[in-house]
Write a structure and sequence with these properties.
492 residues, alpha+beta, nine-stranded mixed beta sheet, two-stranded parallel sheet, 17 helices, 17% strand, binds adenosine-5'-triphosphate, binds magnesium ion
Length: 492
């Protein structure tokens, strides 16, 4: 019988806890605590950062952590890790996902970490070794970083053949927390969904056939402010594996959306829609568009549920603005593509709670509140859609149709005042067969749009890309002139 996602998760946690003496630490909320460099928690290590930086209060329980395991709620939308654009288009990136991880803080290092990972994947989960590819750090002459020969040797002793043990550079296989601080090489495990061939060239190549599943980071250096590298007194291991991807491997599915983490949700969405069932297609053609809508809505309702339960509400800046966009994007896909009635999104919350509530109980206890927040925001958005429709209609009725160029100021006001994504404005005008004064609109956008990059110690970029300078000042967001870059990006 197929391994359920719940069993996949508990097998991971039990393996490290019971077999290898790790302490189980619960997931932190997705709203980062005391870390202004982050919009959302985006990796299991976020809550352990003080340990790595050596800033833990000695009286805190964290001070005694040596071996730790957890499954962390992560959101990658906005900021340094922004996977929002991929969601729905591919079948491996979500805005919300669970990251399974094990840590050593000054305890075991490379050898034990690799052996445990390999034993879990191949013996406990039973993944055929010949479907796995492993990458290691090739070194980087420019930054005087040596290749990670030790990791290569360990994998080779474990039995990974040379053709499946692949060197990669800084971008893929070196991890740094920021411009300075702890850093080190990493080694990643990839799974070939196809098999029976040499798939080395598909590793780290954005192929749906060979998917990265597990990242093992070895923190061995500290990069000083003057950029010199020193060996850390305490060596640490930080790993992260995407649960949804692992489950797809173990359930023999090519797509995360075909696993039991998503199929009940997709079924519920179908029940409320007026279109055919989910077909698992990608691409721009009709069924591909419908299927993308299914994936987007299934993804976004998980993110909305988890975020709102953790106290991040759709709003006007930072993480809250990102969430507002996610909500509006989900509403549009429900209405425009799936032809589902108002209230659909909120009605999916119990299914999310059913799927994840045993592990993250706030999804049960906060479900009513989550549904209220979603419904309120949906009503608001739908009513501004209507208002926008009326505004367009009024403007058109005053225009001379023969030379119809829609005034840019009205299009801009749809965006600025009614909060429509710009591509929706385009679409609404296109549907009515009118062209907007593109040049003038671009000018308004250029003048008014601001991308704020808050450079922090974490080198993490916080992007608040619909705020004007005036709004920044009103919200008292710290910024300097040269940290502001004007940039226009089509709103999702
Ligand atoms: P990718 O290259 O596929 O974007 P990544 O290298 O950005 O992944 P890491 O930061 O190494 O990912 O995170 C560790 C693991 O978390 C990945 O190996 C993957 O299994 C999982 N993961 C990362 N991003 C996502 C996402 N957006 N949705 C689902 N799982 C993810
Ligand atoms: Mg990524
Ligand atoms: Mg990667
Ligand atoms: Mg990675």
């Amino acid at each position: 019988p197929e391994l359920s996602a719940a069993r996949v998760r508990s097998t991971f946690l039990d393996f490290f806890r019971q077999k290898h003496g790790h302490l189980l630490v619960p997931s932190s909320p997705v709203r980062p605590r005391g870390d202004p460099s982050l919009l959302f928690v985006n990796a299991g290590m976020n809550q352990f950062k003080p340990i790595l930086l050596g800033t833990v209060d000695p009286r805190s329980p964290m001070a005694s952590y040596r071996r730790v395991v957890n499954s962390q709620k992560c959101v990658r939308a906005g900021g340094k890790h922004n996977d929002l654009e991929d969601v729905g288009r591919d079948e491996t990136h979500h805005t919300f996902f669970e990251m399974l991880g094990n840590w050593s803080f000054g305890d075991y290092f490379k050898e034990e970490a690799c052996r445990m990972a390999w034993s879990l994947l191949t013996e406990h989960y039973g993944i055929p070794a010949d479907r796995l590819y492993v990458s290691f750090f090739s070194g980087d002459a420019d930054s005087r970083l040596p290749p990670d020969d030790e990791t290569r040797r360990i994998w080779s002793e474990i039995g990974v053949p040379p053709g499946r043990l692949l060197p990669f550079g800084l971008k893929e296989n070196f991890w740094e927390m920021g411009d300075s601080g702890p850093c080190g090489p990493c080694t990643e495990i990839h799974y070939d969904h196809v098999g029976g061939r040499d798939a080395a060239r598909f590793v780290n190549a954005d192929s749906p056939d060979v998917v990265e599943i597990w990242n093992l980071v070895f923190m061995q250096y500290n990069r000083e402010v003057d950029q010199t590298l020193r060996l850390l007194p305490q060596l640490s291991v930080d790993t992260g594996m995407g649960l949804e991807r692992l489950v797809s491997v173990l359930q023999g599915k090519r797509s995360n959306y075909d696993t039991d983490l998503f199929t009940p949700l997709i079924h519920e969405i179908h029940q409320r829609s007026k279109v055919g069932p989910y077909g698992g297609r990608t691409g721009a053609a009709d069924q591909g568009r419908v299927d993308m809508a299914y994936r987007v809505v299934a993804d976004h309702i998980r993110t909305l549920s988890v975020c709102i339960a953790d106290g991040v509400h759709p709003g006007m800046s930072g993480a809250e603005l990102v969430l507002r966009r996610i909500l509006r994007r989900a509403v549009r896909f429900c209405v425009e593509v799936l032809q589902a009635p108002q209230g659909t999104l909120a009605s999916l919350v119990p299914a999310v709670a059913h799927s994840l509530g045993d592990v993250y109980p706030e999804l049960h206890s906060e479900a009513d509140r989550v549904m209220d927040v979603i419904n309120e925001n949906e009503v608001q958005f739908l009513s501004s859609l209507e208002q926008g429709g009326r505004l367009i209609h009024r403007t058109l009725s005053r225009m001379d149709y023969k030379h119809a160029v829609f005034p840019a100021s009205v299009a801009w006001s749809l965006h600025r005042d009614l909060g429509f994504p710009l591509d929706l404005v385009d679409l609404m005008l296109e549907e009515r067969g009118v062209q907007v004064d593109r040049q003038e609109l671009d000018r308004l956008i250029q003048n008014d749009k601001v991308v704020l990059e808050l450079q922090s110690g974490d080198r993490c970029q916080v992007m608040l890309d619909v705020l004007s300078l005036a709004e920044l000042q009103r919200l008292q967001v710290p910024h300097t002139d040269d940290s502001l870059k004007y940039q226009y990006r089509l709103d999702q």
